[in-house]
Amino acid sequence: MRARRALSLAHRYSGLLIALLAVLAALTGSLLTFAPELDRLLNPELLSPQLPAAGASPWPLAKQIAAAEAGQTDEPGWQAAFIVPAQRDGQASAIWIRRPDPQKSGSSRFRQVLVDPYRGEVLGQRERNRTDWSRAGFVRSLARLHGDLLLGAAGRWIMGIGALIWVMTSLVGLYLWWPGRQKLVLALAIKRGAGRRRLIFDLHRASGFYSAPVLLVVAFTGIYLALPATVRSLVAVVAPLADARPPRVGAPADGAMLDPDQAIAVARSVFPDGQLRRVSLPATPDQAYIVAFQRAPDVARTSGGRSVVGVDPYRGDVLSISDASNSPLGNTFLNWQLPLHSGSAFGLLGRILVFVAGLIATVLTASGLLIWWQRGSTVRHRSDLQ
Predict the structure, then answer these.
(1) How far apart are CA 205 and CA 382, in angstroms?
(2) Which of 4, 139, 291, 293 has the most CB atoms within 10 Å of its CB?
């Protein structure tokens, strides 16, 4: 009984410790499960260009990049960093451009330029280094609030430790929930007509049990997303990991480079069945093109890709291949973290489950706070009577 009492206290006060953080993470996380759709809803003029004419072909990526760079008339020195091509008709290409930040040595400023892939028209752009709660910046700022509380590295540590505490207190809660076989049905239901206190208790207990599989996965994966370098180093101890360093090249004397479309053509020879998701451009003469694909065998993601090809920008040689469907165990484990966290690993159903689980987490936290408050009120009432 002493052990159970200690676990009960640990569950109660660890829950109180992260209550505000849990609600913030749960509500922002629920919204972010549909981040692309929310962004398009808020910014149709940026992200949803007119449908192309029948038979039209998209502009080469090199021309789309040139259009994005040419539109930067306010400041010189902007250079394309990577491009996320439009995935379907009626969607804009997102071209991220960078420029050295004069106020922060060694840092860069980033803009996202949205381009109509069939007309080459720049639809608009948005700064990506600052917090912006306007329509254009709302989703990215929401993602930053969810990921690091707008505090940078310190915020990521807070979120990572908070996620770890959630995992631990949830496991303790499941242990405390177990009523024994004879009372199992009672523990799974919400008893009606038994008063407000019993209703809140049953709501906390039942919602905690039913949502536990999803919330535990979301919290566990949240530890990695908040502290990727730390988790990666721990994974490397128990499972093999492929070298994550990008390939390096030697520039020839003339320095003539392939354009992005030529580099993509080389990469497609490796993954001809892949859907192009992202192309990172060389920022220095010794860097390669990094071309990322989403393939049918890969775990589903809402953005990006994990089957990656490094291409020599001068000679057109394939320098590296990362096949997400045939990765070392450690890489496979890490590749699943974001898709599980967002629910995209299981398509629309998975995203809906994560969305609903975030709402349930809010109910779970609120009901836990009410139980604690009611318990304190009872103790205070008894003290007044003595």
Answers:
(1) 26
(2) 291
Give, in degrees to the nearest 5, the angle at Cα 168 between 235 and 175: 125
CA 60 to chain CA centroid, Å, is 29
Q: 341: closest CA among 160, 157, 152?
A: 160
- Between β-strands 289-294 and 307-311, what pairing exists: parallel, antiparallel or unpaired? antiparallel
| Among the listed residues 18, 30, 32, 26, the one whose alpha carbon sits nearest the alpha carbon of residue 161 | 18
- The residue behind tokens 């996202």 is 112
Tell me how far apart the 2 most distant CA atoms of the chain are, in Å.
Answer: 92
CB under 8 A, 24+ apart: contacts of 359-363: 359/26, 359/27, 359/30, 360/207, 360/210, 360/211, 360/215, 361/22, 361/23, 361/25, 361/26, 361/211, 361/215, 362/22, 362/23, 362/26, 362/27, 363/203, 363/207
Q: For 77-130, what is each residue's pLDDT tens digit?
A: 899 999 999 999 999 999 999 998 888 877 889 999 999 999 999 999 999 989
- For the chain, percent of residues with pLDDT exceeding 70: 95
Residue 377: both structure tokens together: 């009120």
- The tokens for 106 are 């060694």
Q: Are 347 and 314 in contact (CB under 8 A)?
A: no
Please say whether the dihedral angle defined by the alpha carbons of residues 271, 276, 277 and 282, taken in this order, is positive or negative: positive
